[in-house]
């Protein structure tokens, strides 16, 4: 085990359906590293993020995030762990349709007693939203936001609790080039301010030089399904 690793994965295996199996012998990511995750569609990038965050439990192997052995936790413990420690920007955003953009950004605070909505949290939510150009849109429900705006709401929601681990699944996918750079600036800034580790799945190879490291799914051993 690497001493200062934020993420330590060993002997990971997960089969999904009849035709897909993910296998990662070893993966270690130091605290504070900014990592891009690339690979062909269907290679298992989202599956890996889901395992790291405890949304999926693997068939075999160990995942440690910080001091927590995530793969030993119960479903409920994994949900609590995720709410407290991980900011997840989902590929399809997963916004709550009946809540306003503002309430969606504050949503992680409704999920766990460990987080409470203070004046400071509300102010920070406004500031984060303004930094991604969402001012004036915070009362709208997701149905009345563009794809790019929904994505920015999802990013603010992931960043607001200052998580130690940020997992972003194509967080720049629906944006124009200027906004891609802006969103990456914000993800990097917030990660640095919180001393957080960032794993970002991207298909956008122009962004790769900005990361400390690139994990390419082509490097993982293919498992006959
Ligand atoms: N709930 C599920 N049940 C069965 N198979 C699934 C399920 N979700 C995903 N898969 C399969 O797992 C494989 C990996 O999917 P995953 O979403 O991790 O790929 P990805 O690398 O993130 O792809 P993309 O770049 O297109 O988002 C795919 O073959 C997919 O069809």
From TrEMBL:
Keywords: ATP-binding, Lipoprotein, Nucleotide-binding, Transport. GO terms for molecular function: ATP binding; ATP hydrolysis activity; transmembrane transporter activity. Pfam families: ABC_tran. Residues 7-225 form the ABC transporter domain. SMART domains: AAA (SM00382). One of its GO terms (cellular component) is plasma membrane. This is ABC-type lipoprotein export system ATPase subunit. It comes from Rubricella aquisinus.
